[in-house]
DNA sequence: ACGTTCACG
DNA sequence: ACGTACGTGAACGTC
């Protein structure tokens, strides 16, 4: 049954005005009604999911009732000063929210509500009326429920026939009689003098209606009451008439005008911000985040069943030929066994095109048909719409076929629209527009569904300006990642095992020493058991706590280093155990034919970076020498080849310089200075020559922090200095680098306005945290707003570089093996080293020119540990 | 399934 | 008074 929700605008606004303290915008406009009304509106929207909704308002002209009774509402006070303007503000915001409003000259909101209710009931709808006015209880019916505001405004109480009976022992229409007898001072309905709610109820319980009461006036107890009923009989009848909500209103339009449309974030947030309605914006944003971002203003798609066309072998050949020449986009679904790199292979294809589907199974298929089909998949000319380009390309690659002609990748599109999404399976992609869908019945069903939602994704990509990012960066990048994953990186298993044996020996020793010092054996890997030993048995002072108990992380233990000899052993144990379990054992488990093939995830991070799994080759140790040794086991897959690494120098700070145009930061890069040294000179007010290593270290931490959204706490912790000192550094920094300060403030302010930020290449990240009820979360949102454009732009630039590098080195004996955010690792034949290194450096430095120069440092060597600088930086004139 | 810890940029 | 630097993935223990 469709659901119609009707709101009594005037009544609710009044309620809100009196229920809430008088809040104002910074320039003094009152907003408490807006806050109260909208809070309630959003709550009911979320809880009730109306199919139709409308807010009714009084029209401030003479109403029919004044013709009936000159005194009607005469006693009513002037609308209070603070309330009146809020009606206009409210209507303005409701318009932005696409909430239909209804007002009609000569009628009160009450009457409009009654008329809409009756009409909606007649059309078989369920009706909910939200009001603070008990008069509306007269509308209750099996189909209509009234929601009365409780104490505040956002709390409501639902009345149906049963609840009404519980409360008053009256039937809905008797509410009119109740008012006829007792009157209503606020509307100046007189009623009968001496009759309040108590007496009126008693009379109605006995005699049902005003007419019944008047007819039996002699029988009622109480002389004064009897005489009043006689004297004011006409007034009682008139009062009853005045209290009756009119249902015969000539509504100038149909209920279709009240169809619910999901408010659009792009209109809602600016409208709320205009009135400083931060709390309301927060509620909206939370709801919007919970519901799933992309659903916001997207209509659901009604999936059609597309018929499956059966073809003979000759028919298939003819059909494939027809697709080859017609070049209509084919939407593909693929069922397969195994996974991309583990020799997985396709089982059947679902093909959807122009309202029809086709199923091509590998098994019964005529080999000629399969060959022809694979030829089509390899054709650049035939456009394909796919759910997962990378997996498809890997599967085809397993039989030496090269996927070409990808016109639209739905997973990547969805990721660009909602970078926070976690599920990109075909069913998830379709469910975004067809929430009720549970499963696909067949591969043709899946292809048809994908084909029907694809235009929605395409439209959304266009609307958000993400087309170039999708087609020029993410889609081409998929193919580069496929090459890299297939190539893998060489790993020296024997060396790794040897490395592991050394660690094992040390670990066993440390284990025994720890047990001896603790005078008991326990599981050192259990933070819980370790905490008990350290802080209870050994009585060490617990500094931090976690949710579940004592904190035993390295930072905490470091503080205790001098307190007990066991601490140092534990820290060593932890470090070695990490190397052993995650790296030695982890990598050994992943090795195949002397190589490691990672999987690069292209739709995981919120910022646009890649991630690497099974194994993660983006977090191989480097900072500590002991772990760094591990890099010795990584080498080229081809004998005699060299590893060539290239990393962007200070890419994030350069992007910050570009964004902020801060003169000092830009100059520093333009002159090719050491940026940390320059920062130290500025912050400490000394010459470049006078910068000490300590000063540089502090400045470096500040520079790092900047990119993360600098905090006093973070900096003080990072440098191990008091908050006061870190505060001083930050102040000094922003004094000198005021352009950076200005930029960071601007990006946060803009993010709060728009609820999102973008990178230089237009990548989008929505930031619901900015509107979270929790302050800590909101501050996180601000740091995200500062960090994402910088980190995300770096990711964009690296992706462009990867595509160009892969293309640029094609004719050389070289391959890209890994990407580690700001580093590319290649292997190259010695004879091609010089040329490939030049191409690499040149391509990366010019992938996306900024207003400051980009510098790439190259290194070369036999393995990932022994790398020496190559192509030393050329001083620019 | 979740929390803690720690490896990387 | 609180809880904090941004972005990830893996191993392990605990529930």
From TrEMBL:
InterPro entries (UniProt xref): 5-3_exonucl_a-hlix_arch_N (IPR020046), 5-3_exonuclease (IPR002421), 5-3_exonuclease_C_sf (IPR036279), DNA-dir_DNA_pol_A_palm_dom (IPR001098), DNA/RNA_pol_sf (IPR043502), DNA_polI_exonuclease (IPR054690), DNA_polI_H3TH (IPR020045), DNA_polymerase_1 (IPR018320)
CDD domains per record: DNA_pol_A_pol_I_C (cd08637), DNA_polA_I_Bacillus_like_exo (cd06140), H3TH_53EXO (cd09898), PIN_53EXO (cd09859)
Catalytic activities: DNA(n) + a 2'-deoxyribonucleoside 5'-triphosphate = DNA(n+1) + diphosphate
Leading EC class: transferase
Entry EC no(s): 2.7.7.7
Function description: In addition to polymerase activity, this DNA polymerase exhibits 5'-3' exonuclease activity.
Annotated PANTHER family: DNA POLYMERASE I, DNA POLYMERASE NU
Name this polypeptide is given: DNA polymerase I
Organism of derivation: Desulfosporosinus acidiphilus (strain DSM 22704 / JCM 16185 / SJ4)
